Every structure is written in C-alpha cells, then in structure tokens.
Amino acid sequence: MNDLSHGAPPVAKGAAIPSHTCERITRVEGRGASLVAFDTTRPEGFRFTPGHYARLGVGPGEDIVWRPYSIASPADADRLSFRFTRVPDGAFNRRFERLRAGDEIRLDRRSFGFLTLAQVAPGGVLWLLATGTGIAPFVSIAADPSTWKRHERVIVVHSVRREVELASADLEHAMSRHSGAERARLRFVPVVTREHVPGAFGTRIGALLREGTLESVTATRIEPTSSRVLLCGNPDMIRETRAWLRERRLEAGRRGLPGQLATEGYW
C-alpha cells in the first residue's frame, strides 16, 4: 500500500491549498481482458456536474502520471466511479495495475469538461452515443433527476468490442434511483463488434446511423427540432458521427447558447 495520507492534508495558515487530495480506492473490478472499473472515496467539497471528468494521478512522490477519466457515479454519491481501457505498457496502466482496494490515488480538486446537459437545449429526445469507456459520463447523466425533467426520452447507444464490456448493468443500477415511469423512458441499444451477441448490433455506430438502423429500431428520427445528442468515445466515431449529424443540421452551441450537439474532446 502506498504511503500517501488519505484525504486533504492539513494546510498551514497562509499556505497554498494543494491542487489535489489523496483518496482511497474502494473497489477494483476487471471486466474482460481490457476493461477496468473502479471506485474511490470522495473528498468533502468535491463537486461535479454529470458529464464531467476528473484528473487522477498514480505514482510515488513526484513521479506522478495524471490522466483524465469521466465520472460514472451520480452527482450526489459518496464514492466516485471510473472505468478505463487497459493500454499495454501505458504509463498510467503500469502503475495502476499494482494497486488494490485500500490503496491510494491522487484526485485533482477540480472537475472538468463540457459534455453536460447545459450544452444542449432542453426538450425532445436525448441521444447518448458512446464507444468503450466513453459510456461513463452517460451513466452519471442517466442517474441524474434533472435529465428526466429536461427530456422526454433518453436513448443510449453503447458500442464495444466484447459483450462483457457493455454498460447495461451500470445503467440498470443508475436507473434504479428513478420511478418505473422514468425507467420506461430509457432505451438501451447495445452494439458489439467483435462477437455475435443476440439482441446486439454488430456494426459501428456511424454505419448504423447512415443506414437508418438506429432510427428504425427506436422509431425515432434524429432532427434538430426534437433531438439532442451527446457523443463520447473513440475519436473516429466522434468525427464520423458529428459529420453525419451536421448533415442533419444538428449543431453545437455557440457563445453560451445551447445547441443540439455536444462532444467530449479530452480523449
């Protein structure tokens, strides 16, 4: 176990407040060969909006590797939840692989990002399109009560390589906070590209949009007057999907005015 002290260290009067706290890992779960999900303690005073990401640091002393990870937990949870894809020989991955529940990890005091509901106009159907670990901010958004006040329905499309990486269980847990009526307004569309999984599509999100498959299976047309779309995940998916959405005349907000489209660009 690392020798960092848990939580914010004491600060002498007049001293600068440290930019991060030292939190404790409470759960580590491997999902298949490539995906890791984990929880940490949450320091008092840490605030975030569903859709934000946090900066996490691993490593001893001054040899810290920092990486941004979207927060999957509800905004009022007492733990912070994250997931990441293992990267062979990745600097963060090598250090994290040695950690277990009870070990410590650094957390930037701030949260970041623009992949929030404030970036899109209220009303209509909210589409949340994600690949891989890009689903994390959408789990947090689905758990938030304001989502269901702002939008009539929510459609979550999650594309992964292997079935074990699907976030269906995470979404079910997030939706357990809501009434049956709200749960009925969520549609989950799984996409698994490297395995044949009954009930899941096997084609990339971009192709499913171009072919009209997603609109057909959900009986919902994507158009600027009634659709709001958030994208998170693989940069190629984001570029391809954003271009298609712009052909449908969905645009990101401008000068503080919410639009119909928002993406996360920290990948």
Could you explain the architecture of this structure?
By secondary structure, the protein is of the alpha/beta class. It folds into two domains: 20-112, Translation factors (Elongation Factor Tu (Ef-tu), domain 3), CATH 2.40.30.10; 117-263, Rossmann fold, CATH 3.40.50. It is 21% helix and 29% strand. It has eight helices and eleven strands. It has helices at residues 91-96, 136-143, 145-150, 168-175, 180-183, 205-210, 213-218, 235-247, and strands spanning 20-31, 35-41, 53-58, 65-70, 79-85, 104-112, 125-131, 153-160, 186-192, 227-232, 261-263. It has a six-stranded antiparallel β-sheet. The protein has a five-stranded parallel β-sheet with strand order 9-8-7-10-11, with helices on both faces. α2 (136-143) runs parallel beside α4. The longest helix is centred in the last third of the chain and has 13 residues, at 235-247. The relative contact order is 0.15.
Salient structural properties:
single chain; 267 residues; alpha/beta; Elongation Factor Tu (Ef-tu), domain 3; Rossmann fold; 2 domains; 6-stranded antiparallel β-sheet; 8 helices; 11 strands
